[in-house]
Give the backbone structure.
Amino acid sequence: MDLTTQLGQLRDEGLGAIQEATGLKQLNEIRVHFLGKKGPITAALRGMKEINPEERPRVGKFANEVRDALQRAIATKQDELETAQMAAKLEKETLDVTLPGTPVKTGTAHVLQQIIDEIEELFLGMGYQIINGPEVEEEHYNFEMMNLPKDHPARDMQDTFYITKDILMRTQTSPVQARTLEKHDFNQGPLKMISPGKVYRRDTDDATHSHQFHQIEGLVVDRHITMADLKGTLQLLARKMFGADRDIRMRPSYFPFTEPSAEVDVSCFKCDGKGCAVCKQTGWIEVLGAGMVHPNVLSMAGVNPEEYGGFAFGLGPDRFAMLKYGVDDIRNFYLNDERFLKQFAWKG
Ligand code: PHE
């Protein structure tokens, strides 16, 4: 049999085998069998030297065509098999996305966090910054810088946990006032900030006291700030938190770091001021402390009280939440009883 006929037969045989291949492994075996180094085509080409020289180019060309034809057929078949394999895999792995899933348990923001978020939102909208201060605080900032020198009788109301003689768990968020005032550059504009966070007192825990609770401090310092600015701001706060019809009133009080100082009441949201159990028949509920920043606080923090002045206030989110939602025991906020916390889940 001459070489051309032999090659032609090999081609037909190969193409037939490729056509019938049913798997990639089998296809590869066919490739090795026909086109491999030990395969018949390679062997046939080795036989070229026996052909007479005039014939060689024609036979050589034909041999190349046979090899190309087999290679192309293998490539095409390989594509086909791979596509079929992928299709079969997809078919097998089909998911029924309409099956009901396993519900994921989602948490919600803690009710106190919800109150803090609402208040932050209100003050951010009025251009205040939110500033955090340390809970483990220097006695110097917690008391001295807030105009409570050593042996000041007002310190008695705020005994706390001492880490060392000079380091304590802060009793109020007010020290953040001093820390922020010290750093503020009034050439950049007025200082308007709130500072939410935890505070600590040496209190025996009962329905209305907890050794750890929350406060939000507010501070505005600029030129020409008056008590009217304070009242307007707190009015807004009361209405946002307790309803659009609320009024506030300010009663004279005492804080070492404000002068004058005021205790701020909001008109009772339960009875609208007529008198009920919530407001103890007075029509008013005490919600926070406030006042005009004491000149000593300003000057100790390096701010000239002749030029600058402002107001400050401090409120308790725990107390706000208790009033707003009729919670009668502050300890509920800290027990992490889901049955309690879930009641406030509607807001997230
Ligand atoms: N720091 C005060 C307290 O804990 C509250 C307060 C803050 C009062 C700012 C006036 C101004 O009782």
In short: The chain has a mean pLDDT of 93. The first strand starts at residue 129 and ends at 130. The two ends are 88 Å apart (CA to CA).
